[in-house]
Amino acid sequence: MTKKERVWRAIQGREADHVPTGFSLHFEKEKAGGEAGVESHLKFFRETDTDIIKIMNENLVPDVGEIKVPEDWNKIPSYSLKDTFMQRQIAMTESILEKADGDAFAIGTLHGICASAIHPIEARYGYEKVRELICAHIRENKRPVIEAFKRITDGMCQLAVKYKELGLEGIYYAALGGETRYFTEEEFKECIEPFDRQILKASREAGGVNFLHMCKDGLDMNRYEGYGDLADVVNWGVYETDFSLEEGRKLFPKAAIMGGLANRSGVLVDGTIEELQSAVREIILTFGKRGFILGADCTLPTEIDYARIKAVTEAAGEV
Q1: Alpha helices for 126-224 (secondary structure H)
Q2: What is the pLDDT of residues 198-232, one digit of tens each?
Q3: How far apart are alpha carbons 44 and 47 in whole angstroms?
Q4: Does pTM surpass 0.90?
Q5: Which of 24, 180, 256, 299 is the most exposed, having the fewest neighbouring CB atoms within 10 Å of its CB?
């Protein structure tokens, strides 16, 4: 069975010859873009031998200047595939696909509407400040914020479709906004969910597979229940949110589940190889092989030894 066939079996809710694996991390800044970024990806894929190759996306929505009041969101322009940051991501994706293992299941990272709205101003104000600023502006005058979200969403929809045209199987959609300390449930429903769904729908209509990823502490997983009709695979911070794999399967009964290991602590980071492989076997035997992809809560530490991930892949292949 090929890696691609193995992942498709999981997506279809079936059992493969063994549970497929998928992990990712952020490469060092100087090795994340351009040709260096291509080589970083290829080295990671080659040395970890996972079934899924996930192309990272450090080509973020660019800085637009200061945003201090709600009306400043009018500075956010319309985006298209002709924009430089889009062109860079497309070029990297093309180059990686030309050289990567064609046997693997390839997906591209696409930042959700919340993350994409943060990126233009995060460097100016810091992550927490930006999150608070967006909430404050929505409560003060949401119209210019929502209009900016619409323009960003249109650009992300184009990227989702382009990913499929380039030869990727689909997208790894990094969703934010479900943390209860920021948006209220009503604000999430009005200002985040419609745009998330629009991008996921664009990917689905283009024939793409949607990996829905949710993370950060204080996450209300129930806010994403309505996304289930557009999610083929669901991955979240199991340990970060204290929301188990079993609970996730109940919340998203039609999707494959991806996860099982903490990404920044625990056996994957601190255990011996023997302990790590034993944990992998226990996770698979406990949760079951059907409709399951072994992964982590989120991205792994940049400095992690790739041999540890390879050990996970090998253990999964033995169960």
Answers
A1: 127-166, 185-191, 193-205
A2: 999 999 999 999 999 998 989 999 999 999 999 99
A3: 5
A4: yes
A5: 180
